[in-house]
Write a structure and sequence with these properties.
By secondary structure, the protein is mostly beta strands. The chain has one domain: Kelch-type beta propeller (Neuraminidase), CATH 2.120.10. Helix content is 4%, strand content 45%. It has 1 helix and 30 strands. The strands form 9 sheets. A 4-stranded antiparallel sheet has the order 1-30-28-27, with no helix packed on it. A 4-stranded antiparallel sheet has the order 2-3-6-7, with no helix packed on it. Strand 23 and strand 24 form a beta hairpin. The longest helix has 12 residues. The chain is globular. The two termini are 32 Å apart.
Length: 339
């Protein structure tokens, strides 16, 4: 009997759950403590949202960006939120990925310093707990992460938190790096491995997703100084895990005028791409074609969508009532026909 590889098993399970029919969106229970710049993933069958940023003040009188320690879990079956143990430190603008059922969080900014620790959230029975996994070797703010098997891949980021003003309005990117590094989380003693940097121009605020065969990288922005125009990229590229090399792919059909990168989530044989102006596309990985799906019911820049129990789920982020400060409490649930 031939055993499936980790990539093959992931593709089979996701394909078995996904439908090729129409996509329908609904709004679920609002998220407590709305925030953006968080890390998210599925642990213990629930959507986890950890850390992030929010603003003190009131509408029209926002004062200062704050960095959160809060961690929450969303149960799709009950559509209820649960408060989990806080992160060990306030943390936002970090990278996160689920490896072997654990949420890894690394890099980012605490509000006073760049974080070098790697934190891991685990679920044992009905209990969640954070612990320190080790150290990350570089200063990175707004890196992105994805996983393949037991290997954690971390892409880019800036070496500093670069707010545009003293209140914390985010961010320039003159310290942006194009690095790609990996760590086998089952053998951390082997250390981090340097891999080829991503192609194209330096940038940050891109998003990544894994399809079990490659790491896909979407969009990104660049700005050296607060008064400079923001360069927004339509680029798409992929890092092939087996060949360990980057390849260019078909660019995005549209970019956001707000500079926010779309959020990708792997479903079946496609990546569903959701931007902050309600637009949703299916990116067919077999032929790199885009087809438009049903839009979101509200416009919001959701940091991360996940595939959870047969649905696409995304929570909180930023809306456009008073960008870039207003945090959204919306929770979006997208289901295909028959689900």
């Amino acid at each position: 009997m031939k055993l499936l590889s980790a990539a093959g098993l992931l593709a089979l399970l996701s394909s078995a759950q996904a439908s090729t029919g129409d996509l329908h969106w609904s709004l679920s229970t609002p998220m407590p403590e709305p925030r953006s710049d968080y890390v998210a993933g599925v642990v213990g069958g629930k959507l986890i949202v950890a850390g992030g940023t929010f603003w003190t003040g009131t509408k029209g009188h926002w004062i200062q960006k704050q960095f959160a320690v809060s961690t929450h879990a969303f149960d799709l079956a009950t559509q209820k939120w649960e408060k989990l143990p806080d992160l060990p430190v306030p943390l936002a603008c970090a990278a996160g990925a689920v490896v072997d059922g654990r949420l890894f969080v690394l890099g980012g900014y605490t509000g006073t310093a760049v974080n070098r620790k790697i934190y891991v959230l685990e679920a044992k029975k009905s209990t969640y707990a954070w612990h320190v996994f080790g150290d990350f070797p570089f200063d990175r703010v707004y890196p992105r992460a994805a996983a393949f098997g037991s290997v954690l891949y971390v892409v880019g980021g800036t070496t500093k938190f670069e707010p545009r003003d003293p209140t914390g309005t985010c961010c320039t990117s003159k310290t942006a790096k194009q690095t790609l590094t990996s760590l086998d989380t089952r053998h951390p003693e082997k250390g981090w491995r340097d891999l080829p940097p991503f192609p194209g121009a330096p940038r940050f605020y891109f998003n990544v997703e894994s399809d079990g065969r490659a790491l896909w990288m979407f969009s990104g922005i660049y700005q050296s100084n607060p008064k400079d125009p923001i360069d927004t990229f339509k680029d798409v590229c992929r890092f092939d895990f087996a060949r360990r090399q980057w390849e260019s792919a078909k660019p995005l059909p549209q970019i956001s005028n707000a500079g926010n990168s779309p959020s990708p989530v792997f479903v079946g044989d496609s990546i569903i791409i959701i931007n902050d102006f309600k637009n949703v596309w299916r990116f067919d990985l077999s032929n790199q074609t885009y087809s438009e799906l049903a839009p979101l019911p509200e416009a919001a820049s959701v940091d991360r969508y996940v595939w959870l129990n047969g649905a696409i789920v995304g929570a909180s982020g930023e809306n456009f009532i008073e960008p870039p400060r207003r945090r959204s409490e919306w929770v979006f649930v997208g289901k295909f026909d028959g689900k």
